[in-house]
Amino acid sequence: MAQHPRRVTGDNHFATAGFVLGLLGLVFAVIPFIGLIAMPLVVPGLVCATIGLARAVRYQAPRLSTAAAGLVLSTIGFVVCLVWIAGIAHDISTSAAPGAAEPYQVTSAAHDS
């Protein structure tokens, strides 16, 4: 007796949530100085898209492509956020503290008078 594939019922809200959060996170991530606020969007987007993808594969739930797109968008947004964080951390670590004196540099030989 041939097995019939299960009928897809219901909706995969995790896939939709992962896609929306990933899209919004990626849009905000590429905006200068606002890119850091995208982190609270892309991390839940990664989680929701992963759950949505697992449900779509395991239970044959709908929106497999939406979950996959959400996972890709969230991942790209997450990487962009990490680049922003690394760039800001680099700028902070290499800049002189406000009010700090410039390092002394010898420009010529000292002469005795």
Automatic annotation (TrEMBL):
> What is this protein called in UniProt?
DUF4190 domain-containing protein
Which residue ranges run through the membrane? 12-31, 37-57, 69-89
Species of the source? Amycolatopsis taiwanensis
Query: What phylogenetic lineage does the species belong to?
Result: Bacteria, Bacillati, Actinomycetota, Actinomycetes, Pseudonocardiales
Alphabetized, the UniProt keywords read: Membrane, Transmembrane, Transmembrane helix
